[in-house]
Every structure is written in structure tokens, then in C-alpha cells.
Amino acid sequence: MSETRDLMLRSLDRIVHDTLDINARVAADASGQWPGKLWAALDEQGMTAIGEVTEGDLGFADSMALVGRAAYHALPLPLAETVLARRLLGRAGIDIPDGPLTVVAPGVATEVALTGGRLSGLARGVPWARAISHAVLAAGDMLVLADISGATSGQGVNMADEPRDALDLGRARVVASVQMSRAASAVEADGAMLRAVQLSGALSRVLDDALSWTGDRVQFGKPISKFQAVQHLMAQLAAETAAASAATDMAVVASVAAPDRFAVAVAKARAGEAAGKGSAIAHQAFGAMGFTREHHLQYATRRLWSWRDEFGGEAYWQAELGRAIAANGADRLWATITGTG
Amino acid sequence: MNDFRFEPVAMPAAAVALRSEVRTFLDKEMAEGSFKPTVGAMVAADPAFSRKCGERGYLGMTWPKEYGGHERSALERYVAIEEMLAVGAPVMAHWIADRQSGPQILRHGSERAKRMILPEIAAGRCYFAIGMSEPDTGSDLAGVKSRASRTEGGYRLNGRKVWTSFAHGSHYLIGLFRSSGRPEERHIGLTQFIVDLKAPGITIRPILNVYGAHEFNEVTFDDVFVPEDMTVGGEGQGWAMVTSELAYERSGPDRFLSTFPLLVEAFRELGPDPHPAAAAEFGRLVAHLATLRHMSTSIAGMLQKGESPATQAALVKDLGTTFEQEIPEVVRRVLPLEARFTQDKDLYAQLQQLALQQMASYSLRGGTREILRGIIARGLGLR
Hints:
In chain A, 53% of the residues lie in helices and 15% in strands. Chain A is α+β, with helices and mostly antiparallel strands. Chain B is of the alpha+beta class. In chain B, 44% of the residues lie in helices and 15% in strands.
């Protein structure tokens, strides 16, 4: 890890320690509003104006590391969505508005069209839409930046109480639109990569916490980590976490300029599977204690259960991989696997 | 942070060039019918194929030229062996000699052993077996009872080894013997010997495996003489030798590619336009495969840099053997076997039936899954 990246991640750790207490988390989950102090602190450090490939102080891999670390801390704010939007806008050459941004996942938007400079259609599951003024979306071959103030037509939350709202795109105003070939595919793949990075970050947290918990918790006169059954659970959790981060790193390396759809599919499918297995193992290790609302484990596991389904769940990406190999012919499977080196 | 990173490794140009060279060689061999793809390729032996590999410089690849090696990088060797495993080539004859015994002799053997044996291994003419397990000693290796006693100019070996793969086709065996102390003294007093399998006093008896194939053996030692300079690492160093090289052994492509040739044939059977549910089942395996290969090549890169990532290697083997055992189970849900029991068996049916009967061994050989999880737990600081 580079020194710059290490400093940045430490700085994020410090901000989280100083500005996000349990009351702020509970308030964010209940209200659907992110803690303003937290966003301001990140903003001041330049951590919210990242994501573009060529601009800003941070490289792409560094910004992905920051998103992963934010997920490690289960930060209740739209940092990943802002980074994703900035990356897409930067690639399209659209001027990037300041502040938090959101993105419409193509898989949950219906009848999206851009005709005569006006949008139409319905988007569901849009992160934090109620509290954000601008969204990025794909309409046909166009990447669109839209002002969505007043366009929220319904409110909801995912399993982690992160706002996931509906947008009546007819009420959104087009700010800019630029032709981008296969725009929906690009938005979807970049979004899936960001979610994979987040899954991997949250799994690291679950592993860290499970290791310290099993080392501290004493039953039958010794820490439960001394029991072989528990050691094997932790080994499996470490393996799933390692697989998720390896698959994700591979996708990030392959996707600097634009998403590599094969690598992203591998990452989202593998990290999503690890999320399910990993959260089940962690809850087993934490026992009844970890099954309470009060316990911090749920901040990670409810995000794992939600993020694995966003921008396409495992089955979606697995099917894409299966179809791609089948269509290419069995004899080219190995060349595809070794194609990146 | 306790998570283990697997930094991507960039394959050097020489490895990329070697890949296409090896692929061309293997394609030609298959076209000429020199071998048919199989699963668990480390259990299919073909000395003629091994000699061809030796002639082409694919054995002893990283060793010094003065011992018959080719002074290539670990990543080049990685590429050559993964290409062979991916097509299910019969690599068993030379496998242990090239992967394990040769490197041990190179590092810890006497000069005479190196000069006599290594060039023959690199030529694909000399094969090795491993004598570790005994009837009462499986995972708990430190309990070996087979003994070595001092004699004029060397040692006399007595005892019995089991599950010794390919001893019947091998020239030598590297075996672990107790040279001093009692079994209760555990790790102390163990020595590894290079044993000539034609030496008087050796008896090799087949032990047929679950599907009736002769792969492993029982080897008995009745006052077998081994010269002084045929120890590996010297007297009493056996335990350190056995445990020091496990990262090499546990993270290689053989730990996740055993049933890959079956996956290829299953994709062929599946056809170009599969049902979405079947596509997802197969695609899941592709995601696992791509991830495991990334982790495994990353470890090869760490080894190349002189690191010793023992915990990461154990993680790869645990995930890898689980994966190669999943392929037959997933595939049989989509491509049922029943009718294929009767018909002329196509390659898919042959590989599938072999894999289903063979795969229990994947999480036993080279350290059981339970032992590996213990090693991972130690790496996590739990023991």
C-alpha cells in the first residue's frame, strides 16, 4: 500500500472516530438523512471530490480504497454513489456539480427515454434521492446528468436503512447529456464494481470484529477462539473475505479507464456470495449478542445483505458469465481466464 | 486489519511467450493422440509424455543450469504447469520430482545427490514418491515410527509407509524416518532420506483406491541401506524440511484445477445458448475459478520475491479444493448422468464419473481441509 493511501485511510479512520458516534448512526438510520458533520469533515479533507480517472488528487485505485474503507466503517452517507457519479461524468466530459450525487441503477429503471431534451420513465431504488439535487443516469446511448430536485415520487430504504427512493424522471430536468456507447452497461458495471468494493470493505470489518470478539468472549473457562469449531469458522470467514477482496482488486486493476465487464462480473458475483456466507458465519460467532439492534455487527451485515443485491445480484452476474463462456465456446474458457495475464 | 491481500502480479513477457509455446505443444500432442484429457491430472502417469516435457525444458525450470535446470522465473514455471493442468495432461510421473523432491534436493541435498539426480529429473527420466504417512500416522506426521539407525557409511531403514503415490513407477522416494529419540519426542530426531527404490529390502505393494485404480502403495523397508550423503538437510532436520516448503505445495494451480477439464466438457455439452438458471450455475464456477487463479498467481509472485505466504497458501488450498469438488456436483444437476451410464461414454461422462469418485481425495492429499483450517487459524492469531 502506498504511503499516500495509507495516510488517507488513517485520516478517514480519525474522522469517523471523532464525528460519528452511535447517536449519529441511530439518527441517520431513523431519518434518512446523513450526518451533516460527517460529510463536512470528509469534504474538508477532499474525500468527497474524487472518482475521476484523470482529475483530483487521488488516483482511481486510491479512491476505491477510500470507498472500501468507508464501507468498513459503515458510513451512513452517499460517498460511493458520489464517487460513482463523478467517475461517469468525468469519463463523459460533463461538468461535475459540487456536493453529493446519486446514480440510477439501470436494472431497476423502467421506460427511461430522452426525447427533445426531456426525460421520461420511472427509477426505483435510487440511493438517497430525496436529499440529493443531481443524479446520473443512462438513457439509450446517452449519459445524462439530471437535476432531480422535486422528482422524488416515493421513499423507501434498503435493509440497512439506507434511503432507496423512486424518481419520476418526467419531473427531472436535464442539465447535460453526452453520447456514450452502451451507457447503461457502463453505469451498471461501474456501479457493480463500487458495490463489490463496499462488500469487500464491510467483510473486512466483520472479520476483524469476529476475531477480536472470539478472542475476548470466555465460555467453559477459555476464550471461544480456543475451540477448534470456532477456529474453523474463523478460517472460513477469512477465506471468504480474502476471495472477495482478491476478486474486487482484480476488477479495480482491470477497470481504471472503463469497466472491464468480465472482471466486474467475477467481482460482484464472488463478493456477493462471500457476503452471504460471511455474514452467516459472523452471526454464528457472535451468538445472541450479535443478533441485537444495539450491537454494531448489524451495521455491517445489513449492508452486506443489501449491497449484494444492488446493481445486479450474484445470479445476474453469474448468468452473464455463464452465457458469455457458452457463447464463446468451451475451448476458449481457459484463454478467457488467463487473458488478463 | 486481519485480511490477507493478494496483490495482482504482472506476468513477464517471457511467461506470456512461454504460454503460447506450451499451448502449441499440448495442442499438437492431443491432436496426435498422445494423451486424452483427464481429471486429477496428477494421478495420470505417462513417462513418454514426461520425457517430452523434459526435452522441451518444462521440468526443473527454475533450477541452475549446472544441475540441468533452465534458470527461468517462478512465474514462467507457473504458466507452464497451469497450461498442462488446464488440458488434463498426464503429469503424474514427473510431478512430485519436479514440484517437491527436486527443489528440496537443490536446497538441502548433498553435492553428489544434486549432480546425480537433478539433471535426470529435469530430463523427465527420474521420478519420485513421498514416504510420509504410516498406518498409525496420518495428519499427525510427527508420530512416525519407521526408524533409521546408524551403520558403517550410512543408515539402515526399517518400517512401513502407506498411501505412497506412484511408488511403483518411481525411481526414488524421499521418506521421513525417526533417526533418534522416541515417537513421544515428536518433532525431534526426524530425518528425511533419499531412498533408491531398487535397493535390497524394499517391497512395494499396490493399494487400490476407491474406484479400483492403482495409484498408491504400501512401501516396506527391511534393513534398507542409505548412504550418509543421501539425507535431505542432514540428520535431525526432517521436521524443519517437511514444514518449510508448504507454501509451494499448497498454493499452486493443482489445488484448484483438478476438475477443470470436466468443466470444459460440461460447457461443451451445455451448448451455446443455455437456460438462464444453468448459465448462472456454471457462471458461478467461472467467477470462483477467475478469483482462485488470481489468488494463486499472486502467491507465485510473492514466492518469486522471496516471501513465504504460508497462511495465504492455506487459504488458496482450502478454497481451491472446495471449488474443484463443487464442479462435479454443480454439473451433474444440469447434465444428468443416468442415461450416460449405458450409452457409449463420451468424454463428459467419462470425466464426470471419474471426478465424482476421485474428488474426495482432493481435500485429503497435501494436508487435510481440517489441518489447513488450523493453519489459517494460527495465521489469524487464534492459536
